[in-house]
Amino acid sequence: MDDLLLTLPIIQPQAAAPAAPAKPRKPDWLRVKLPVGPEYAKVRRLVDEHKLHTICESGNCPNMGECWGAGTATFMILGNICTRSCSFCAVATGRPTEYDTDEPRRVAEAIQLMSVKHAVITSVNRDELKDRGASIWHETVVLIKQLSPTTTIETLIPDVKANWAALDVMISGGQEVVSHNIETVGSLYRLVRPQAKYDRSLEQIRRTKEAGKRTKSGIMLGLGETKDEMYQAMDDLVANGLDILTLGQYLQPTKRHLEVAEFIHPDLFAHYREEGLRRGLKYVESGPLVRSSYHAERHVNVPI
Question: For the Radical SAM core domain, which residue ranges apply (predicted)?
């Protein structure tokens, strides 16, 4: 028996696996009310009747209840399937099948029926199209202006991948504000926007400014950026002619997307607003729930 015991292997106790870092808990300041009310129902009905897409729904925007309740919405043209696979975005990725030449008319008529004072139009990326969808963009803006001459328009346009001729068409319909979001700081582009380039987005903003437009961009916070990187991004945007900047908290849309690295306190958002103005931006909308089109009607009158 003793000999048998001597042949048994000695089992060393294993060290406990390190505990996984706790995920940051969503703070109270990010809680929003569910969308309700007659104005919300009216917008919901018009969107469904006209078979329209909205980034409010596709992007899981936390302000949908507030904005739709006020009778406004951000319309998404050129379908709801994007050719890009950004790791933060809730919009479906794939091969788009929709190219509806009647869409500009339907969007313009819906805006007229809603009596919208300020319309925001955005789109998915359509990299497979030679003109990146620029002709649909242009016609949509032109028809909105024809049917609703007093309606002001912001277009939140995608990265045209240096197709500057397409950019010229996109921004020439008569819109008052042209927005293009850089989304994050330069060091995080490969992680957050793998099919985009930081410098190329800055050039797109610069070219838009040179065309005489009121320029706007947005950054999501809480992806792992540092304060110094945020300051650098603001300086880069100012150097490339940006007028208006929106800053908001990144929220993970599904478990397949990037996790939130940090929930940014409202005090830091307030600091970034003051810092952006100090560095030369003309207007900064900054807060945890701010999104690109949040309070967009205020941005029309920013001097250029």
Answer: 68-282
Q: State the pairing for strand pair 74-77/118-123.
A: parallel
Domain made up of 34-298: CATH architecture? Alpha-Beta Barrel (3.20)
User: Does 172 appear as a known binding residue?
Assistant: no
Q: Is 85 flagged in the annotation as binding?
A: no
Residue 61 has what DSSP assignment? -
Measure the CA–CA gap between 125 and 195, rounded to whole angstroms.
Answer: 11
Looking at 52-133, list the stretches that DSSP marks H as alpha helix, in order from N- to C-terminal side.
55-58, 64-69, 103-114
Contact 2, 238 (CB under 8 A): no
* Residue the block writes with tokens 């939130």: 260
292 is in an annotated binding site: no
Query: pTM, whole model, 2 decimals?
Result: 0.83
pLDDT at 42: 66
d(CA 57, CA 64): 8
Domain boundaries, the chain: 34-298
